[in-house]
Amino acid sequence: MKKAQIFGAIIASFFLSFGLTEVFNPVVHADSNKEIVFWNPFTGPDGTSMQKLVNEYNKTNPEYKVKNVSLTEADMYSKIPTIVNSKKGIPDLQIVHVERIKDYVNNGLLDNYNPYLDDFSDINKSNYVPEAWNNGAYKGKRYGVPLDIHTTFMYYNKGLVKKYAPHALDDNIVTFDEIKAAGEKSQKDGITGLGLTWWKPNFLSLYGQLGGQLTKDGKNPNLNNQTSRKVLRIYKGLYDQKITSQDGQDPMQLFLTNKEIFFPEGIWMNNQIKESDVKYGVTNAAQLSDDPDKMVNWSSSHQFVLLKQPKRDKAKTEATLKFLSWVRTNSLEWAKAGQNPATLAITKDKEYRKMQQSFLLTDKTEQESLKIFNYRYNGYLADYLDRYAYDSVFGKTSISSYLNKLQNTVQDEVDAQMTD
Asked: 65-70 and 141-142: which strand pairing?
């Protein structure tokens, strides 16, 4: 090995040994003062779609071009507090999930848009899906401008529905009772009625249908209650009767191999499912009632935010809003990624209206069913639900113990923040 190579290896080893990996994973800065550095968590196919959208904007020859920087979600969120507090290398534009905005504001991580909105009259509530727009505001100020509103709905196998639940989709609402009835018939043929997929949206959607509130005072969690117990009992009842996929089974694989009738998942999974041979359709998430006015479809939103800067550049910030204004009327590329853009302008696009997820926005009742569970400490709730998921449904712990631990875990985190 050449001496230079040996020396380089020693230096690299030194930095890695002392945790100085930032040297090898540097923060991306603007190449010039006329460039908007845009951080987002879009990798894979989503990242490709976002890069295409940015490229389209840059082709319009704006004074400030956008530099797209895609980071893994975990890496991006870990960097944000550090980089804001360091006051160096802060990106000009940032995407975060809407549920993080309240906590970020309270921790001094965001600037608001209010000083600039008078010059961008098209960025207003009448031009966006209300649920996405409303949740981007906090304490009377605008901190988020929505890119999209992404939802967990339900895929269904057309052939299996025809055989085991021929009338369940007559009203485009599939109830838990209809799923149970279909599953009782199908299990004799080795067909699963309902896939147990990502627990957080499944839990919250049903919790919302039952009128559950995550907090009563905006701070303390309200999670160990009769409503959450009913949610768990409903799912456990279906699991115990083998209506649902079982512990250890892959619900997506069951669906893709025509072994499952109903498959709750995000709209963003549609492009992947399209690549299979399964003949399927899409509908609302499973509902307790067939009353359309009582529907709840769990949703979230990617929002454009401005990370706090020690001295904000007015010209660059205005250029940033020009990009957001352009995105509002040029979101088709994002829809092609399987997303629902939050701009209402997209609902008039003929190509978009042919997309399977579009019914959630083009129909007013469907649009009103979209619910963002915007609790300030949502992150702690999500961490628990993702970690322990279906443990009480699978019988690994009791419902009482599961909910008691959920309540105490989130409460402890809230109390810890209050004493910081």
From this structure: unpaired
